[in-house]
Each structure stands twice: as C-alpha cells, then as structure tokens.
Design brief:
This protein is mainly α. Helices cover 78% and strands 0% of the residues. Helix 2 packs antiparallel against helix 3. It is elongated. The relative contact order is 0.11.
Length: 98
C-alpha cells in the first residue's frame, strides 16, 4: 500500500516507503541501462562514438532542470547525473569494442 509522507505515523512506515521508492528508482535505472545498451547497437551500426559531448551536456542540463523544477538541488543532481552518464558511456564503449 502506497502512503504519502503525511500518512506515515512512524519511522518504520517512513522507512518502508523510502525502501519501496528506492526499489522503484533502481527498476528505472535498470530500464535506462537497457536503452543505453540498445544505443550502443545503434551507434555501432551508424558509426557514432559512445561519447557525444553535446548530448552529454544536454542530458546533464536536463537533469539539472528536472531537479530545479522539483525543488531539488540542481548542483547535486547535476553532479550525480554526470557520473551516471559517464558510467553509461563506459558501458557503451565496452559494447562498441566487442
């Protein structure tokens, strides 16, 4: 049962909701990685490098914007997203060299 933060009356209830959300976030990260792997296939066929700096900048800018729109720290999430993107590029590079 999904609860709103204001519906939680104990730390156990809050922690259960945070754990549920964490699981959903990792499901989304796994889905995102499936797209990254597919991108490597398409990039190989189109002879596109794994690292496309303009796209990296765009993705990080988008992350910062999404964070700010939701009242989150854009600097924190921008740095986080930059690490995420760099890890994705590393995966793509390893797949492209196969």
């Amino acid at each position: 049962m999904r609860r709103q933060p204001t519906d939680c009356d104990s730390m156990e209830e809050l922690r259960a909701e945070i754990d549920r959300l964490d699981g959903e976030i990792f499901d989304l990260f796994a889905e995102r990685m499936r797209y990254i792997r597919r991108a490597a296939d398409i990039k190989r066929e189109a002879n596109i490098p794994a690292d496309v700096p303009e796209r990296v900048d765009e993705v990080i800018f988008n992350a910062r914007t999404h964070a700010a729109e939701r009242g989150l720290d854009p600097n924190l999430y921008g740095r986080f997203w930059e690490r995420l993107v760099r890890a994705a590029i590393a995966v793509e590079k390893s797949l492209l060299t196969r």
